[in-house]
Amino acid sequence: MPELPEVETVRRGLAPIMEGATIVAVEQRRPDLRFPFPEDFASRLQGRRIVSVGRRAKFLVIHLDRDPVLIAHLGMSGSFRIHDGTSEGIPGDFHHERSKIAAHDHVVFHLERGGAAHRIIYNDPRRFGFMVFSQARDLESHPFLASLGIEPTGNALDGAVLAALLAGRRSPLKAALLDQKLIAGLGNIYACEALWRAGLSPKRLAGSVSGQRAARLADAIRAVIADAIAAGGSSLRDHQLTDGSLGYFQHSFNVYDREGEPCRRAGCAGTVKRIVQSGRSTFYCSACQR
Predict the structure, then answer these.
(1) Per the domain annotation, does 87 fall within a domain?
(2) ∠95-79-14 over CA atoms, to 5°?
(3) Does 234 fall in a domain?
(4) 187 domain residue, yes or no
(5) What separation in angstroms does the CA of 276 have from each of 247, 282, 284?
(6) Which of 83, 96, 88, 87 is nearest to 257 (CA)?
(7) Which of 54, 55, 73, 217 supports an S-S bond with 198, CB 3.0-4.6 Å?
(8) More confident position, 242 or 75
């Protein structure tokens, strides 16, 4: 499943094309994805002007000139393609290649912006993604968004906040970091990377992280997310450069998917190990992560 940095690079790729555009028409090519489309999905969007393309955790939140607000999730395999009549590209860098097979093009947004026509095509082979509506006044209490925790971007997540979130928890630290009610949008890949940067074992009790440990981990989480967003964003200069192949940041993982390889920390002679926690693969170095 795409993680927060991938969704943020998708948002950044879509925003310059979608913001300020009018939705001329919507092609809804099937009745459902993971969930049924809202009633009158296409007609309720037609004629609306897109005000902003935002993100909350791993959800895209598209505000229009009046209700409804469109909430979209990419699921396991979803992606958007931008087509301007002469070329097309997939905004965002993904760990796994994204589909361009037309049979999996389920929604097409026909846009007009500044006299130019664009198509935004949603493709999803596994159909685990979804699109739903919310009223603007109810957005924060929407069932998909209401229980989400703090965003791991900006300066809101610091050591004191993280220590308070983890206090008293007896679950493994890695499992706590993946709890979306604590930290919204932090996924498996970047949790592994942040723990390595902070020098903390994914197996230690979450409640044992306080003081300097919490400060190191909060800094590492913010930094690894920021680095991933910057790396993905660098491929979006003209919104056509990405092709769904491995992104720049994927080449700089320190532990994720590197089982059996030497630890990259200077002075560490350890080897990256893989264990399974809560059904997810965890990669870490037992020599320097304590």
Answers:
(1) yes
(2) 110
(3) yes
(4) yes
(5) 25, 6, 11
(6) 96
(7) 217
(8) 75
Mind telling me the catalytic residues?
Answer: 2-3, 58, 280
CA distance 263 to 273: 9
Inter-residue contact 34 to 75 (CB < 8 Å): yes
The model's pTM is 0.86
Structure tokens at 82: 């931008």
Name the residue among 160, 157, 154, 186 with its Cα closest to residue 173.
Answer: 186
Residues 31 and 128 in one domain: yes
Q: What is the dihedral of CA 56, 62, 67, 68, to 10 degrees?
A: -80
**Which residues does residue 105 pair with via DSSP β-bridges, in sequence order?**
123
Owning domain of residue 262: 159-285
Rounded CA gap, 247 and 98, in Å?
12
Q: Does one domain contain both 9 and 135?
A: yes
Q: Which residue in this structure is represented by tokens 């555009």?
A: 21
Considering only the C-alpha atoms of the chain, give the largest distance between any 2 of them, rounded to a whole number of Å: 61
Closest CA to 127 of 82, 80, 79, 75: 75
Q: How far apart are CA 272 and CA 205, in angstroms?
A: 20
Concatenated DSSP letters of 250-275: GGG-SSTT-TTSBP-STT---BEEEE
Do 170 and 64 lie in a common domain? no
Task: Please give the tally of structural domains in the chain.
Answer: 2
Q: Do residues 104 and 27 both lie within one domain?
A: yes
Whether residues 133 and 168 share a domain: the answer is no
Token pair, residue 115, equals 């006299």
H-state helical runs in the chain: 4-18, 41-45, 159-166, 173-177, 188-198, 211-233
